[in-house]
Every structure is written in C-alpha cells, then in structure tokens.
Amino acid sequence: MESNIIYVPMALAIVGLLFMFIKMSWVKKQPAGDEKMQSISKSIKEGALAFLAAEYRLLLIFVVMASVALGVVSYIVPTTHWIIIVAFIFGAVFSGLAGNIGMRIATDANARTAEAAKTSLPHALKVSFGGGTVMGLGVAGLAVLGLSIFFMIFLKMFVTGEGSFYEEMTVALEALAGFSLGAECIALFARVGGGIYTKAADVGADLVGKVEAGIPEDDPRNPATIADNVGDNVGDVAGMGADLFGSYVATVLAAMVLGNYVIRDMSATTQFIDAFSNMGPILLPLVIAGVGVLASILGTFLVRISNNDAKESVVQKALDTGNWVSIGITWVASWFLIRWMLPMTMEMKFFGEGIKVIPSRHVFYAATIGLAVGALISLVTAYYTSLGKTPVLKIVKNSSTGAATNIISGLAVGMKSTFLSVILFAVAIWSAYVLAGFYGVALAASAMMATTAMQLAIDAFGPIADNAGGVAEMSELEPHVRERTDILDSVGNTTAAVGKGFAIASAALTALALFAAYVTFTGIDGINIFKAPVLAALFIGGMIPVIFSALAMESVGKAAGQMVEEVRRQFREIPGIMEGTGTPEYGKCVDISTKAALKEMVIPGLITIVTPVVMGIGTALVNDDFLLGAEVLGGYMAGVCVSGVMWAIFQNNAGGAWDNAKKSFEAGVEINGETFYKHKEDNPSPPHQAAVTGDTVGDPFKDTSGPSMNILIKLTCLVGLVIAPILGGHSSEEGLANIEDEVSIEMTLDAKDMAKATVNYSTVKEGEKVSETIVFEGTEAEVKKELEAFEASIKTDANKVEKVIKEVKITKE
Amino acid sequence: MESNIIYVPMALAIVGLLFMFIKMSWVKKQPAGDEKMQSISKSIKEGALAFLAAEYRLLLIFVVMASVALGVVSYIVPTTHWIIIVAFIFGAVFSGLAGNIGMRIATDANARTAEAAKTSLPHALKVSFGGGTVMGLGVAGLAVLGLSIFFMIFLKMFVTGEGSFYEEMTVALEALAGFSLGAECIALFARVGGGIYTKAADVGADLVGKVEAGIPEDDPRNPATIADNVGDNVGDVAGMGADLFGSYVATVLAAMVLGNYVIRDMSATTQFIDAFSNMGPILLPLVIAGVGVLASILGTFLVRISNNDAKESVVQKALDTGNWVSIGITWVASWFLIRWMLPMTMEMKFFGEGIKVIPSRHVFYAATIGLAVGALISLVTAYYTSLGKTPVLKIVKNSSTGAATNIISGLAVGMKSTFLSVILFAVAIWSAYVLAGFYGVALAASAMMATTAMQLAIDAFGPIADNAGGVAEMSELEPHVRERTDILDSVGNTTAAVGKGFAIASAALTALALFAAYVTFTGIDGINIFKAPVLAALFIGGMIPVIFSALAMESVGKAAGQMVEEVRRQFREIPGIMEGTGTPEYGKCVDISTKAALKEMVIPGLITIVTPVVMGIGTALVNDDFLLGAEVLGGYMAGVCVSGVMWAIFQNNAGGAWDNAKKSFEAGVEINGETFYKHKEDNPSPPHQAAVTGDTVGDPFKDTSGPSMNILIKLTCLVGLVIAPILGGHSSEEGLANIEDEVSIEMTLDAKDMAKATVNYSTVKEGEKVSETIVFEGTEAEVKKELEAFEASIKTDANKVEKVIKEVKITKE
Fold first, then answer.
1. pLDDT-based confidence at B2, cuts 50/70/90?
2. Which of A213-227, B340-354, B737-751 has the lowest mean pLDDT?
3. Which of B:547-586 have CB within 8 Å of A?
4. Residue B348 phi/psi, 5° resolution?
5. Residue ranges of region Disordered (chains A, B) (predicted)?
6. Residues 6 or more apart from A606 whose CB is under 8 A from it?
C-alpha cells in the first residue's frame, strides 16, 4: 500500500476540488439581489472574462513560441525529453484554469455578498469567504493534482529501472519542471498585466471621478467605475491566484528535485531502499502539500462570526482562527509524515563539508522554521502596514507638513521594513540549511506553502468584499449595506498586506531551493563570486528587479493617462452623465485597461524570461565555456533574488503603509493637537490631501511592481533550472568528447621545493585538433590543487586525465 | 635613480600642494567686497568652522575607541604591527585637514566671487574655480603625500629582506591600510553629518521662509539662511572632499596590495626582479596618482572664459576642456609609465584558471577602460539628470497631473538609470579582469581616480558659486551680480550630478579591488554563495544600504522638523524680522543643524563599521570556524556592494532629475500646449508646486543618503580588509597548531569502484585534545576532491596532511 502513496496527494487534491465544487454551487445558490445588482455584477464579470480571454489569446502566442524554444532544448540535450513541452502547456493551462475558476466565483460572489449584507453581516462573511475558499481550493487542488498526475506519468515513462535511479528520476523531474515553468510564465503575465490593469483603472477613476468631478468612489456616473471593479478581480484575484499557483508548484518541485539528491547521496555506497518505492524523500513534499489541502478545508469551517454588529477585530479573529488551525494541523501532520516517510537518519552531502548524518527530525525542525518564518514575516508586514501602529502613525504625522514629508516618511517605512524581514529570512536559510541542507530549506518552503488554499481564501475574500461594496454603491442600496461590506473590505486590506508578506517569504525560499537545485544540477563547484564574470553577473542580476519595477510603474502611469483622457472625453461628450440621465460607455474604459495591460506586460515579461537565457547560454557560447556560463547564470540568479527580495519588501510595505495612512483620516487623526478628517470642499484637510498623494504613489508600488518581484525571482530561477542541462550536468558527456588522447603532465620540483607542472592536451575545436599547454607553478600543494581545478574545468569523469594526475611524475631538478 | 622612484609621487604631491598655496593666496588677495558682504561671508565661515570643530571633537572620541580596537587587533594578530594605530590616526587627521582646507577656501571665495561678479563673469569664474582648485589639490596632494610618506616609512620598518619579500610587504601594506581606514572613517561621518546638516537647513529654510512667509531664497530675514549657506559648504565641500580623499587613498592602496600579489605570483619559481627595488607593480598606482596631480594642475589652466556675456554652455565647455585635457594627459602618461615600470609580460594567477601570461599593455588597456567608464558613467548621469533631456522632461510633463505622478515618474527615472550604469560597470569589471585580473580592475580604478584633483575642483566650484549668489542676495547687491552667479551655480548643479556619477563609479571599482584584496588576503577559496551561510550574509549585506538610506532620510526629516519649529519661533517672537528692523538669531539655527547632524550621524556610522566585524568575527567565533567567518564576511561585502551601487545610482539620479525638473519651471515649460512658470500668489502654477514636492523628496536622496552609499561600500570592504588577518591569512599558522599528530586516511574501493575514505585526525580545542572522524563517499574522483577540500579547510601547509593524502592506501574490497 505504501508504495502507492503517490495516490494519496492525488486523492487529497480531488477531495479539495470536490469540496470546491460543493462550495461553488452553494455560493451560486445564494440570492444575487435585484436586477440592477445583477446587471452590475454581470458587467464586472463580462469585463473580467473579456480581459482573461484577450490575455489568453496573447499568451497563446507566447506559449507556442516558448514551446518551440523548449523543443530546441529537448533537441540539443539528449536527456531532455520532448514531453517537457506537453508538461509546459499543461502547466500554463492549469494556471489559466485556476485563475478562471477564481475569477468566475469572485464575480459571482460580489452581488451575493452585497445581497447577504442587507440582512446579516455573518452571512455576508460566509458568502464572501465562501468565494475565497473556492478560489483557494481551486488553486491548491489543481496544483497538487497536476503535479501528482504528471509525476506519475513521468515515473512510468522514465523510471524504468534500466538505468541508474538517480539519472532516470532526474529526467522525470526535469520534465516536471516544464509544468512548473508553464504555470510560472502565466503567473508572470497575469500578475503584471493584472497589476497594470487594476491600477490604471483605479488611478483613472479616482483622478477624474473623485478629484475633478467630485463624485464618490464607485459612483455609477463614473465611466471608469466598472473597469475599476473589474481591475480588483483581474489584479487581486486572478493575479494573486496565478502567483500562488506558480509558487506552490515550484516549491514542491524544488523540494522533489532536492529529495532526489538526498537519495543520490545516500545511494553512494549502498542502494537506497524504503517502503515508498525507494523515493520517500521525493514524495514527502507532495504528500505534505496534499495534507495541507485537507488542513485548509478543516480550517475554513472555523471562519465564522455570529454577531451581526461585529467589528473588524471580530472578523479578523475569525480569519486568524481558521488560518492558525490549518497551520497547526499541517505542522502536526508533517511531524508524523516526516517520521513515517523518511529514514531515521539520512546522509546528506554538504558543499565543502563532506557527508553528514542527518536525523529525520531535523527535517521536521526545518519545516517548523518554515511555518514560523511565514507567520513571523506576516506579523512584521502587519506591523509596518497596519492602522494605528507606529510606522503608519509616523506617516500620518508627517502628512501635516505636506506631500513631500509624507512621501519621504513612507519611503523610509518601506525601506526600514526590510530589516526584520531580511534578518528573519537569513536566519531561516541559515538554520534550515544547518539542520538539513538545501533539502531542509526546500522543506521549510513546502511547509510554509502547504496551507496555500487557506491563505488564498483569506486573500481572495478581500476583493470580493470590496466589489460587493462597489455593487452596493452603484445599485444605490441602503447605507448599512455599504457599512457592512466596508467592515469586510477593511479586514481584507490587512489580509492583503499580510498575504503579500507571506507571498514574498515563500517566493524567496522557493527561489533559493530552485537555486540549490540548479547548482547541483549543472554539476558546477558552487557559485564563486570571486570570479569577476560571476561578480559582474551578480550586479546585472541586482539591476533587473529595479528596471522591472520602473517599467511596471511607468506602464501604470501611461495606462492611467489614457484612462483619464477617456473619462474626461465621456464627461464632455455624453450628455446627461452627471445628472444620471445619460449612461457612460463603461466598455470603452474596460477596453483601454485591457489593451494597455496586455501591451505593457510584454516587455517586463520578456526581460524576465530572456535575460537568464542570454546570461547563461550567451556567456557559454562567447567564452566557449559552458561551466562558466552556468556559474555566471548562478551569479545572475543570486543577484535577482537578493535585489528582488529587497525591492519587493520595500515596495509592498511602503505602499501598504501609505494606503492605511490615508485610511486613518476616515476616522479622523490628531496631529499636534488638531484633528483632521477626509478632505471636503467645505472642510479642507491639507494633511489628508498629502496622504492621498502618498497613497497614489503607493498604488503601483503595492499592486503592480511590488508583487511582481515574487514571480520575477521564481521565474528567473526556474528558467535557469530548465536550461541547466544545456550548461552542465548531462551535457558534460559531450564536453568529454572534446578531449583527445591522454593528457600528459610533467611536474618538476626545484631546489626550494617549488613545483612546476606542464600540462599538454589536445581538444577538437570546430573539427580541428588543437594542442594546448598550461603551466602551473607554486608549492607542490598549490600546483596539485590547480591540477585538480584544471581537471574539474575540463569536465570529464573518464580516466584519461584522472590517471595521469594521480600518476604525475615528479622530477627533482 | 629608478629605485628612488618612491620620491616621484612625493615630489609631485608637494608640487600640487605648493600650487595650492599659490592659488590660495591669490584667491585671498581678491577684494572681498563691502562690509556687509564680508560680515555675511564671515558668518558662513564661522558657522562652517564651528560645525567642523564640533564634528572633530566628537570624532576624537571615535578615533580613540577605534584605536583601542585596532590595538586589540594588533595584539591578537602577530603580523599586524601596532603602528597601524598611528597610520589610522594620521589618515583621520589628513582627511580632516583636507576638509578643513577646502572649507576655509570655499568660505573665503564666496564673497570674493560675488565681488568679482559685479564687474566680470570671467573673473567670477576664475575666483570660484580657483577656490575649487585649492580644494582639489589639497585633497589629492595630501592623499598622495600621506600615502608616499607612510609607505616609505613602512618599507624601512618592515621590508628588511630578512624574511620573504611578499610576507614583509604584506605587513607594510596592512599598516598602510590603517591610513586608508582612518581617512574613510572620517569621510563617512563627514558625508553623513554634512548631508544631514545641509538638508535640514535647506528644507527648514525653504518650508518656513519660502512657503509660509513667502520671502525669496537667501533672504536675510530668514533666520535659517546662514545655516543653509553653511550647509552647502559642510555637505558639498567638506563632505565631498572627505569622500574623494577616502576613495583616492583606498583605490591606490587596493592597487598596491594587488600589485604585491602579482609579484608573489611571479616569484613562485624565480625571484621577481625589476629596476624599482623589485616592486614596480606596487609603486605604479602611486606614481600614476602623482602624475594625475600634475595633469590636473595643467588642466586647470584651461578653465577660463573671456566673454562677459557668456551663457552656461560656454562655462560648461571651459570646465569640460580642462577636465578632458587632464584625463588625456593622464592617459598618455599611464601608457609610458606602465611600459616603463611593469615587466613586458607578467604571470598572474587567475582563480580556477591557473597562471596566465599577461603582457603589460593589457594593464594599460585596463586603465583605459577605467578612464572610459568614468567618463561614460558621467555622461549617463548627465543624461538622466540634465535640463532639457527626455527623463527630466517626462517628470516635468507628469507634474501637470499632480505631485503623485511627479513622484512616480521621478522614482522611475532613478530606477531606470541603473540600467546603463550597471551594464557599463559590469562590462568594466569583466573586461578589466579578463585583461589583467583584479590588478587590472584596481588599475582601472586608479586611472579613473588619478584626476581627482580636477574632478574635485569642478565639483567644489559649484557650491562656491551657489554661496556667492547667497552673499549677493543677502547683501542686496544689484540683480546682474546674482544673474552671473546663477549662471555659475547652474553649471555647478550639472557638475555636481556628474561628480556623483563619477564618485559612485570610482567607489564601486575601489570596493571591488578591496574585495579582491580581502579574498586573497584571507586565503579562502573564493566566496561561494552556494553555501547557505554565505548566501544569508549576501542578503543581510543587501539590506544594509536600504536601512542606511532609511535612517539618513529620517534623520533629515527629524532635523528639518526642529529647524522649522525654530524658524517659526523666531518669526513669532522676534519683533520686526519681516520688516527688516529686527535681526534674526542666525546662530540658533546653525546650532540646531550642527547638533542634529552630529547626533544623527552616529547610528548609521556605527552600523557601517560594526556590522562587518560582527558578521565576520561573530560567525567565526560561533562556529569556531575562522575560514567560514571569512567567507561569510565576503558574502556580506558583496551584498553591500551590489545593493549599495543600485541604491546610490537610484537615489542620486532620481534626486538630480527632480531638482532639474523643478528648475525647468524658471524658464517656463510647455505642457499640453500651456506654458507654466514658477508658482506665485498672483500667478498660480500647480505643476510647479508638484515639482517642488518632488524636489523636496529628492533632496535627502541626492545629498544625504545617495552619496553616503559610496562610503558605505568602500568602508565595509576596508573594515573587512583590516580584520582579514584575524580571519585568515597569517593566522593560519595558529590554526595549524591545532592539528595534532599525523592525519590518517583510509580509503576503500568497493566492487562498483565506489570509494569511501575515513579520515582520522585530532585537534586541540580549549586545551584538550579531541579526536575527530570524517567520512567521504562517492566515486574515487569525488572522494579525492573532497579530501582536497578537507585539506584546504583545515588550513595547513605542513606536510602532515599533505603526505598522507598523497599516499592514501586504496584497499579493494
């Protein structure tokens, strides 16, 4: 039975998806309100689905091109099977499907939440969180299901027992990387496109509607209001969903690849055998993910309130309870799973330290660290972005001296928030590594990601509540409905900020696990930044997130500008809009956001995908040195990760803090003894205006460029992993063919015991045989080391060089 | 004669200082204007000197503490001589002296420039640039003189010929590192303190004076106006001078250290001999620096204009001519110097590639790359920050939709400017390294820094002209005086931005050269970021510049807040200020800026100096592994450099662009067919107000946190270099003592040719002898590699381990 454990995550994923369907039909059965509400909800849904359809059409071109590129890879690298293309396409389709399910339920749930809020806040929470649950389970269920099915197929295809288990499993996991790559590519475009869409519509609607025309948010007279509500779904629901789908798949994949290395290390002397078809360490992360789906389902039952007059804190507590219970269940379950599925002790190779014996409980500790760090980084994020806490209060206070001081203190808050986050993160890497190597790091990430379904349910409920408020406003429902949805919306804002902290923490750990898998895969001796080309690549990598952010921000600016023009035009040209007698052309605004988002997402997307290929393969070809290419690409990846994490935390938290600094004025804030409220014509409030400026700057920070950093770093490492076979690893056998004849080495020692080794060898370059000579000088030990390094650099495991280095004749001068 | 070449840079430095004195007395002989002008100039001078005096008093405490710490280092490390303390103190004193000379002449030259501008623009340029020349030559002359004298003393003390040349020279250069450390520490505090001072005064004066009271800039009724003018000197003159003094010394030092490695590599088989007391590669950078001083003097003669009605472009051209001629002379001279002082071909050890034969002309090419990259990065900086260029125009255009869009586009400009800068920079590292290893990188930096005297003259003339305008305004001189000083000031703004580009480029290359020196010094096998602790350190390093910037920005905010309160108080309490009948208490404002700057510079300064010590030595002690400590510190250094360079470029260029976007409104700008000017009560200009907001945000960016990044990265690497002997290198001999007995290794091969090596050895830990065992498994080749790595990790060049590894008995099972 145990050898069929691969069916366990598959079954759990199916349970998750079944529960999702039940929840979905429950939500759809709820009353959707009067005709006007339904019509508004329908417009939002149509706009959102139209964007998705247009996006998928564009991505189809990309998927075709990327498939061709993957075809080339599989043609060049003998061990990369063409099936990777199929996996890639399915990864893309599953990611799209997950986004689609989320988007449909979110746009169905908004009017129903508003309708429920007419009578009951607890029921409104149930409907909106029900929508979130559908989204979360859809993403997690599809991720686990897709991974399990493809892994099972690839096992059957490649792990036949004819060759070495490690080699065969590597081929299978490489194909599985295609699935992850497909998912992450779609996620990138969904995040960037969605982020641009939502902020263009938001800024456009606000600048002309609120500021110029003086009508409230979500007013049906504003032509951009439907686009604005569509944006919430496109950016926060579909974008976030695709992001976490990608993270989830990549994390599990990375842990599986590292599990394969554990098995290899343990098989060095005697064949590794366990009750799980000899692949316990590989299957463990998949099983933990499956159990996480179950834990999330259990947690959702606890998200409920009973008091119709509940405030934000009660709603927040209900969500927290559900979240903590899910995490707790996963934590306890992982203890049993690790005990059950891993050998009591494992031998792991630590770079430069040889093999260490690791008890399986260390892996559990690493998983615990992952869960703890996920929770702590969420707390840090909450501290820096929450209403009433010191950082936000500081920004509020600095709003009294104008927009400039508001901006400066917001930037400073974002920058300072990197401190604790990075320290936590560094401690996590270091300690998980010390406990159980990079497998420990990957398991920490897997444990953190296991409750993705719950996290996403909590995240997605926010935009649903936000939209419900929009529907209530546009349908001119009674004020108490809006008040209730506002309570949910306000909690949603906090969970959104916290969710971003969680997303970046998981992305960073995932990227590191992928990075470790990459290095091991290429077979290079680590990434040494003392080599100038690697150092240069580190700098270039560090620059990419900065440029990416700049492009994303500029795109929002451009798209928002077009939106402003269009809204102004409609106010000017359509008679009776302001009086409510003329109907605005909502569709035109939706079109503008859609087109701008699709156009602007192309360049950042291509930079992310193409640059690592250029850095790695370009360096390899120019220098005719594939291992240098591999190391340069590794340096680039590290640069992207370090800089990307910093800019993600900075932008997300600065944006979140600015947002809540602005919100603080709704309840009124006291600055130097004077109380300020929201700015109104008859009651001016310059500090609030300054805070609005800060919030507008923060919008693209927190909703476009900031969250894109996660995908940037993960996708960079994934692309590296997929092209790794070209740069090293399996292709070494081809490199071997370059060495002709035996290598001759003469070594002499002079009177002072200084050695000099002359190495003669010949290679075939462009069909011609070329003789080359290298001289090493130094102490005997130094020269021997150089010889070893030389041997590694020509990359051969044949005996040709080996033998002679061992048998070097030492001549005393 | 040639063996006395050490006297050449010394003599050239003295020539530079003599020329400085001549220029100084010429400037002082110029008429200083009427009594009012002299009194204002005197107030500025007194305020500036009072700040310096207070700063030096505080730094005295720091120097004493650091000296004690260095004493501890020299006590622990047998090869670190206590003389490093003396060198450190002199480095600090020389740096202070250079700042003092610059500050005195700048505050003398301001009124004299204003007086000259009464009659002649060419003469005003001559006076202000004369002041800048004094500053530039003072800094460069003292740097070269200090380095030459101390190097000569240390040569006499340590390079006696009794031991190995390399070892003795290492001791001498280590002591010289103390001089550099002293200079850089003072530079850090001068930059940060000066940056906080100048922006606190500037923002304070502007917010209350210009915005609230509606009086123009530099109006004598504004109590903060003297503090504002003092700030220009304290920040732009003394801060910049100390920064470049530190860079200059550090660059030359790093190149000398790397020159010593070149000699070591070449002496591996036969003793290196040349006509320069066998130390041509070490002396070369010093001689190039000396020649650069001469080239700068020659260049200053070309900075002149003849037309009294000249515009900015003519002044700019005069400065450019002087600059390019200096660079050209240095370039040509370096060709001859390199040909003369270096052997025709050199053998250099490339990490992982063995020894390569490098012709000396490759070093010249590397120097050329340094000069070219310095010039190109300046051009890139100019493009992103100049009036009339696309980036600034974009910000101007975005000012029409409010402060938020102005801020977003300014941030985007700063971020985008990292692209070309980093690419140039990566190409420079990579190509200089390929040409001549890290010695090539260091020589590229040295060549770039050689014309520091000229660069600084061009930089320092700006604040002098700015102050001259202030004196003219406060003394109520005729408008044409202010117009003329404004022309000079405007050119000065461009040169300031360009100077910042140059400063960051040189700082980055210097830091890399120091980084290379550090790695070689500690004797570690490079910095491998595939080890999780090193990777964690890379992240922590990447976070430091972000936190540093946040602290610096917040400090400006705090200090500016106090200034605002004080100015408001004076307006309120001193009768007749606004009518011009009451005299404001200028001194109180000067005091506030002084105290705030001194108080706020402490924390960022300590973070910079203490963190690398904690990372390196902390890791070493906690893990009882000094080489791991060395590698972790290396990862930290790399993180600081990568992130620091990015944030420096981002902040400097965003700040510069915002500044000039605001300035664009002075001549009027056309946005969407409408022309906007500066905001006035009777002629409101919302876009200009938005641009002023952007400029205020940019002020701390470009004058406080941005420029501090240079020193942060250099000082981090210098601290690393100074503590390197504790972590590795010489202390390895102590580590050696830890290995007791011979190391026994048994190696077995099983039927499948898989090897297993069991290593038994014993060490002494805390006085007790402990036996340890390590097992390596894998293919025979893998195990051998692990054994080599193990050997390297226990760090011994004795034969104890060596012999046994060579003689490993292989048993067939």
1. low
2. B737-751
3. 547, 549-551, 553-554, 556-557, 561, 564
4. -120, 140
5. 679-699
6. none
Alpha-carbon distances of A9 from A284, A288, B341, B657, rounded to whole Å = 10, 8, 71, 55
Following DSSP, what letter does each residue of A336-378 receive, concatenated?
A: HHHHHHS-SEEEEEETTTEEEEEEHHHHHHHHHHHHHHHHHHH
Nearest residue on chain B to A519, alpha-carbon basis? B530
Pair of tokens at residue A671:
């600055």
Asked if B418 and A781 come within 8 Å (Cβ–Cβ), the reply is no
Name the residue among A298, A457, A439 with its Cα closest to residue A358: A439
Measured between alpha carbons, how far is residue A64 from residues A59, A67, A192, B379 in Å?
Answer: 8, 5, 20, 41
Q: What is the pLDDT of residue B277?
A: 78
Rounded to an integer, the average pLDDT of A656-685 is: 83
Enumerate residues 6+ apart whose C-beta is below 8 A from A47: A226, A227, A229, A230, A586, A587, A590
Under the banding of pLDDT at 50, 70 and 90, the label for residue A803 is very low
Mean pLDDT of A119-133: 93
Q: Residues 409-428, chain A: which have Cβ within 8 Å of B?
A: 409, 411-412, 415-416, 418-419, 422-423, 425-427
| Proportion of chain B in helix, strand, coil states, percent, rounded to 5 | 80, 5, 15
Residue A139 has pLDDT above 90, yes or no: yes
**B614 contacts in chain A (CB < 8 Å):** none
List, in sequence order, every residue forming a beta bridge with B771; answer none if it has no partner.
B762
CB pairs under 8 A between A and B: 286
Q: Give the best-scoring range by mean pLDDT among A532-546, B73-87, B502-516.
A: A532-546
Which of residues 163 through 222 in chain A touch B, CB cutoff 8 A? 207
A441 close contact with B: CB closer than 8 A: yes
Q: pLDDT by residue (tens digit) across A58-90?
A: 889 889 999 998 888 888 877 778 899 999 999
Nearest by Cα to A716 from A596, A503, A540: A540
Q: What phi-psi label fits residue B775: left (phi over 0), alpha (psi between -120 and 50 degrees) or beta?
A: beta
pLDDT on residue B94: 94
Please tell me whether residue A741 adopts helix, strand or coil conformation. strand
**The whole model's pTM is what?**
0.87
pLDDT at B743: 63
Return the closest-CA partner of residue B134 out of B269, B241, B253, B258. B241
**Poorest-confidence range of A289-298, B386-395, B558-567?**
B558-567
Nearest CA-CA partner of A408 in B747, B705, B132, B265 = B705
Closest CA to A106 of A272, A231, A247, A287: A231
* C-alpha distance from A136 to closest chain B C-alpha (Å): 31
Q: Is A724 on the interface with B (CB under 8 A)?
A: no
ipTM: 0.86
Yes or no: say if B744 and B804 are a contact pair by the CB < 8 Å rule: yes
- The Cα B340–Cα B358 span in angstroms is 15
**Residue carrying structure tokens 């690298």:** A77
Residue B254 has a pLDDT of 92
Interhelix angle A403-450/A280-300, rounded to 10 degrees, is 120
A699-725: per-residue pLDDT in tens?
899 889 998 998 899 999 999 988 888
Domain boundaries defined on chain B: 2-727, 734-812
Confidence of residue B793 (pLDDT cuts 50, 70, 90): low
The position carrying tokens 């946190």 is B705
A384 Cβ under 8 Å from any chain B Cβ? no
Name the residue facing B642 among A433, A538, A777 (closest C-beta).
A538
* Cβ–Cβ contact A700 with B under 8 A: yes
C-alpha to C-alpha distance for B810 and B543, rounded to whole angstroms: 49
What stretch of H or E contains B768?
A: strand B768-779
In the chain, the amino acid numbered A52 is L
